[in-house]
Amino acid sequence: MTRAISIVAAAVVIMAALAVSGCGQKGPLYLRDNPPPGVKPPKPAPYEPVPYPNEPRDGPDAPNR
Fold first, then answer.
1. Three-state DSSP class for 6?
2. What is the C-alpha R_g of the chain?
3. 0.70 exceeded by the pTM?
């Protein structure tokens, strides 16, 4: 019985190691704030100002105030 438990435990450990190693990551993990030498993080999108809403106009198409 203990031999079967140790075999199952070893199988679980091996499967967990395979699952973690096969996540698709290529190369070492790093934080975006501190990339390794030779790796340039992608540039953020440029700032785009928000346009002002249209000013109400006078005339027949103007909304009622």
1. helix
2. 30
3. no
